[in-house]
Amino acid sequence: xxxxxxxxxxxxxxxxxxxxxxxxxxxxxxxxxxxxxxxxxxxxxxxxxxxxxxxxxxxxx
Length: 61
Fold this sequence. Notes:
The protein is built from 2 helices and 4 strands; from the N terminus they run αββαββ. By secondary structure, it is of the alpha+beta class.
């Protein structure tokens, strides 16, 4: 099977998220090309964070 065919393929895993090791990447600004074209590249006022949470698979130990 080609790697491209595996993109966005649903999978089932068992385990748990380790919220004690979360990583926050911020600031992250929402990119809206239509808005930027309308407002001539004015900076976005909406920002947030990407939250990365490790997942420990039960079957892998």
